[in-house]
Amino acid sequence: MVQLARKVLKNSIYNSSRVIVSGVGGLIFTILLARLLHPELFGVYHLALAVAFLLLTFADLGINGTVVRYVSYALGKKDETLARSYFVYLGKFKFLLTIIFSLSLAVLADPLAFHVFHKPALFLPLGIVAIFLFLWSLLDFIDYTFTAFQEFKYPTLRHLIYECARLALVPLFIFLGFSVCGALIGLCLSLLLALFVLFYFLRKNHPFLLKGETVRIDRKRILRFLGYLTFGSIAGVVFAYVDSIMLGMFMAVEYVGFYRAGYNIVFAFAGLITITNVLFPVFTQIEGAELGNAFKKVFKYSSLLALPGAFGLIFMAEPIIKVMYGEEYLPAVLPLCVLSLLIVAAPLNFFGVLFNAKEKPEYPARLIIVSSVLNVLLNYFLILRFGIMGAAIATVISRYFNFIALGILSKKVLGVSPDLDSIYKPLFSSLVMLGFLYFIPHPTTILFGIGEIIIAAIIYISVMFLIRGIEKEDIKYLSAIVGQQERLIKAYNTMYGKLGRDGK
Description:
Elements: H1 2-58, H2 63-76, H3 80-116, H4 123-148, H5 153-205, H6 219-250, H7 253-271, H8 276-284, H9 288-315, H10 317-324, H11 333-339, H12 341-344, H13 350-357, H14 362-386, H15 388-414, H16 421-439, H17 446-466, H18 472-496
Helix pairs in contact: 1-3, 1-4, 1-5, 1-6, 1-7, 1-8, 1-18, 2-3, 2-4, 2-6, 3-4, 4-5, 6-7, 6-14, 6-15, 7-11, 8-13, 9-16, 11-15, 13-15, 14-15, 16-17
């Protein structure tokens, strides 16, 4: 069990680096872009990207998750020919779909802008995000291939290149007077650079994937798995972007900007405690009691971070918006507070990973379809009544429905469930921490705010120790893993210190 945890931790170190690079870089980029474009154009930018990501799902149809599942499975059997066969078959399928939907978006840019959203300013941005869709889709496929190899340094490299490039290029194009279109062109060039680099390393480190004979594979088995992931992924992206799209249809475009300003902060923070892509290939290769124990551990330690993080973000919402975006984005405070509740549910996302890893994608797929329909209906009624607050409430209700239902099914179908202590003890300690924050003076400077957060964190950890939410065994367990991991990383860096070397 400790050996498995060490393996997860090593991958988590790379994944955490990726998340930090992506989250911090993305947050800096969002802040910069929001200030450069101001609410209306910032809303146009996000509405165009929301359409692109919605169609991006159809260019994937679950292929990314399928390549992780089956290439990882073949590598676990040490069968490179089988791994290549899965990669080639799914790669051809991916490329064809990417071409079809990129061209479709380019053709549909005019009717979408003028007749669906009634916003002519969307026409050119939608044409540019057709190119964005093509590049992002291919880059994702290579990224997920590295995930199948459990080589998380390359996805980290992808995000490092992308974040640095767009931080340099996007403001440049905006300052040159190209506004939203310039920002999207900058994104496309950043993706192109990252795509070249990741393809270079894939070809260098795993050339067997790109050339050699293939063998007959069980296409029926793959298509069954792919089919369920398809429905799940389509519903999932509808889930993620329908709120922005419906806000664009029913309200002025600047409200999309306000909503996404709060949304981006919440999901940047949630990403710091999410390691689902690390656990997917690991859960694929373990069974029985080991699987249950592994799940309980990762759920517990994720909950320790998720609950206090959510309550702290709710309390600090207004000063965060003011500091990051400026006072003109203050309408984002209320949706930020509501959406922060999704951070509490972040550990529950592991249930979907479990089902997919155990080749039972039909359960999360069916549930997310139901949840997405619920989300669309709630968005329709709540946006018309409460505006951007309604969109946030609809998202929270439908996501909690999905996560809780998956948790019930996980216990019934897989026999895997978290300990209740992992939920109510961090919840109680977080409420104590929130009480402390409520009764002390509100921070007036960034330094004062950081000091309050540090004191609140100390109070939270102290209460967790008092109620035995954190015990000596947890400290010893983590120390044993980290101690061994330091030696593993040192040896790893000695052998494969340069990114260009063979990472097998």
